[in-house]
Amino acid sequence: MLLAYIDEIGETGACASRDDSRFNTSSAFGRAGFIIPEKNARPFGPQFTIVKRKLFEKEIAQASDPGKCERKGADIFRPTTPAT
């Protein structure tokens, strides 16, 4: 059996004009995810948690409920993300 995790991706796209300093994004929406074999599902969870805790160590430490700490992809993945 294969297991799929699928979530929506997108940006609200508040766009008044490309020249507007606050409202200049384009709306886009889609679905993204991954598929893994059933036998890999149990080992995947802890590996994901380890990587998440390392990447977002500061945010998790500051969260009121670290177990429920979540970051939205739109807040993380930007054209300048690799440079930061």
Structure description:
The chain is an alpha+beta fold and 84 residues long. 30% of the residues lie in helices and 24% in strands. It has helices at residues 41-55, 57-62, 73-76; strands at residues 2-11, 28-37. The protein has a two-stranded antiparallel sheet. The radius of gyration is 17 Å and the shape is extended. It starts with a strand and ends in an 8-residue tail after the last helix.
- The termini sit apart by 39 Å
In quaternary terms, these chains amount to: single chain
Instruction: Figure out the total of helices.
Output: 3
E-strand count: 2
How much of the polypeptide forms β-strand, as a percent range?
15-25%
N-to-C order of helices and strands? EEHHH
Structural class: alpha+beta
Domain unit count: 1
**Rg, Cα atoms, Å:** 17 Å
Please estimate the helix content.
25-40%
- Strands side by side in the biggest sheet: 1-2
Average predicted confidence as pLDDT:
81
Let me know the largest β-sheet. Answer: 2 strands, antiparallel
Q: Point out poorly predicted stretches.
A: none
C-alpha geometry? extended
Task: Name its key features.
30% helix; 2 strands; 3 helices; 24% strand; two-stranded antiparallel ribbon; single chain; alpha+beta; extended; 84 residues
Compact overview of the structure:
The chain has 84 residues and is of the alpha+beta class.
Write the layout of secondary structure elements.
Elements: E1 2-11, E2 28-37, H1 41-55, H2 57-62, H3 73-76
Antiparallel strand pairs: 1-2
